[in-house]
Amino acid sequence: MWFLCVFYHRLLDFRKPEVEALAELFGEDESLQWRLPEHHHNDTPFHFVHLSSEEIAQNIAKRSILVKGMYELWGEGTCYEELRDSIESFPDSRKLPFLASDSTFRISVETFGKALTFDEQRERINSLTYIPFEGKVNLKNADHNFFIMEMDESEENNGLQPILQRRIFFGREVGFADRKLLPTFQLKSRTYLGPTAMDAEMAFLMANQAKAASGRLVYDPFVGTGSILVSAARFGAMTMGADIDIRVVRDGRGPDCNVWSNFKQYGLPTPVALLRMDNNLPPWRSGLNELFDAIVCDPPYGVRAGGRKSGGRKILRGTVDPYTVPEDKRTDHIPSTGAYSLVECVHDLLHLAARMLVMKGRLVFFFPVLRDENGSEVKFPEHPCFKLVAVSEQILSSRYSRVLLTMVKVEPYSEEVEEAARLMHVEFRENHLKWLEKGNIHSSVFKPSDPSQVHTDSKSFKDPKPKYRGKYV
Amino acid sequence: MRLMTHNMLSCNIKGVTNGFPLKIEAEKVIEKEVDFNPDFLRHMFAKIEWKDLVEAARSLGYAELPEDSPDATVIESAADESLLKKLHHALLELHLEEGALVCPETGRKFPVNKGIPNMLLHEDEA
């Protein structure tokens, strides 16, 4: 069945992948078919999607964050006469069950890119007299909600994509996103925050990409304050986290202000385990594998927060040999840590995921990219065990963005994979400085802009994304 | 730290081959109730080392688990939940709040404070 999916006009790259992940979660086997309405651009809020049943459509919409509404389309047209023809040709067998006399209904008018007066809206609703509504009107809590959606032709000037021709849709609402989750979970009222805590909306999107659900185990190897796991827990998953910084994981800011309290605040089950460990030297017993249903995280990019791994700065550079801490100082000794480059960090993450994810399990993580004027091809991390299924860009500044990568484990962890990872690990150790330089975006983000460049480029600078790129933020 | 976590961890000091299971030195053990989720337990059952779980539970004062690993079919069947409930209690409801995990090969102690195990290696162990 085809449904009209109307998205919130924000985080444009994240919209379809969310629906696709949720479709898979709710039982769709095949990849989804999408269609655009006539004359619409890919960034439009309006998309037609093919789903197996109304039940799946409803489940997807209710669990999503970006679906404004999912509708069974009864008709469409460029004017109200065409709309009437279209609705009348929609089979009665599909319409009558929802027009019954013992049900209640409501018709609303929504416009995009313009506003209508109350009278104008009434006029449009009244034009639908040819539809045999038998039930009673209920404006507060109707059984069936109908929507007239109207948009005029417009230029690219109002934050929306340009439309070449006026279009009107009429549909029955099947489901919509529960955006009330956002004010409830907003970081503003979170007990324990850190500088890189993930905002609630994005954390829920990540949890949806990971298909977090009851009975599943979701792991975050860079747990910090637990902001991503909170969203996964809200969707019913069991959670587990690790971090190299013991102050964040064990202490927080006090007995009522720590990772545990972040979960208790919302009445959510606390994580099954929180550990202090180094992802570069993980303490998993050999033979343990395929444990997690999903790994969701936001690794340190090295821009606002850098990653750490075991070994002091001098040891890693080879200036000093690994030293032994005297017996009497060992108990409270905090082992030194050194810089952990993004390249090595992501390599270790992929290796961990290859080993510890169940087959078809998902790895969802953010990866920073520099926004190049030339629009050169960005190369994302790859691994033989994984298939990349979604890439969603979120612009952070004029210099860089981050992309949410969703990977699915399609090949089992083998000895070859283990051996290749071991060799890479040794390579990183022996060439510590060289790898610190590669893929280091901190300097690119913070370098002062060249004044001469600014003048010449501002006119010729072609933004790869169109004017309303603000919607990609 | 729950026994589920303990069942996953081993000592990873350079050169150590027999780092699992870590012996538990318990100073403070508490019991915290957790919602019973049979699907999750069944998924975990396939991943744990049973004998080591029984041993670890005993060191925390819980001896109700059968010595031998139950047959997978017993766990899968929805009929008798008493065994699953025991597994639930041992795996998720027993907490080591304060103590240490000791490497069987080197004797190195990994401290457990406020329920969080510290698995970080010292400079000469990596």
Automatic annotation (TrEMBL), chain A:
Residues 3-179 form the tRNA (guanine(10)-N(2))-methyltransferase TRMT11 N-terminal domain. GO terms for cellular component: cytoplasm; tRNA methyltransferase complex. Its main location: cytoplasm. The keyword Nucleotide-binding does not apply. It comes from the Eukaryota. It holds the Pfam family Tmrp11_N. It is an enzyme of class 2 (transferase). Its EC number is 2.1.1.214. Residues 446-473 are annotated as: Disordered. Residues 189-310 form the Ribosomal RNA large subunit methyltransferase K/L-like methyltransferase domain. Belongs to the class I-like SAM-binding methyltransferase superfamily. TRM11 methyltransferase family. This is tRNA (guanine(10)-N(2))-methyltransferase. It comes from Brassica campestris.
